[in-house]
């Protein structure tokens, strides 16, 4: 396992932020960590990166305790934070070339480091801006540069925190293609946080939902949808009237519908539950359960 977390706990004063988090991530896997604000996502990521010590639990990242990671271990990680880095006076190519040189001592026979500067610039879509100062880049272009800085050392594990914030649709699509190339061709494991559920559905092999300091769901988007909803919404028009029905088996319901009305059904639409529906149902179920537990405790 590239990431192995068991019974991870974090307490700030008398407040338990993480209450026993368990999950793993394998080689080349893209894992999305979702959850409402305050769920503990940032704390979890900072512990995995070695920037914060946990209160308790077992954590191994690339086979090592992050709290004891040395420079050779850290060279295997890539981090893309939400905030920009302040390198305004540097030109794009010069900055990436300079940062890449720090990874040269950590190259191995099976993994050369760093990524070639011009190849990296092309991969993130900054070729036309390679000789511009960072201070002159737009917000979306700076975000692309953040991504380039995160992968310049050809990491084995990449952390992405809201990676496409500020991207236009074209840049977002290019970035999604880049993530797939990194995981499929480079075998890079990627752990990302995002509030864009459509993005998580496109990118992630597996989705973790963190709420109340625990992982409350773990699976592929399809697995989570089947786990929570299980129903599809069927819409159709008959004799000028619009009808809506929920069905456990949409295919069987549609067959029955055409048997009843062989020529009179139009505007047929079958809508499966989306990841957003699933996510909201999971979080709401967790919140309702927590409220019930609190009420019992009060009684």
From TrEMBL:
Keyword Transport: yes
InterPro entries (alphabetical): AAA+_ATPase (IPR003593), ABC_transporter-like_ATP-bd (IPR003439), ABC_transporter-like_CS (IPR017871), ABC_transporter_ATP-binding (IPR050763), P-loop_NTPase (IPR027417)
GO molecular function, one term: ATP binding
Location relative to the cell: Cell membrane
Keyword hit for Ligase: no
UniProt keyword terms in alphabetical order: Antibiotic resistance, ATP-binding, Nucleotide-binding, Transport
Top-rank lineage group of the source organism: Bacteria
Main location: membrane
Membrane topology: Peripheral membrane protein
One Pfam family from the record: ABC_tran
Annotated ABC transporter domain residues: 3-237
Signal peptide coordinates: none
Family: Belongs to the ABC transporter superfamily.
Protein name: ABC-2 type transport system ATP-binding protein
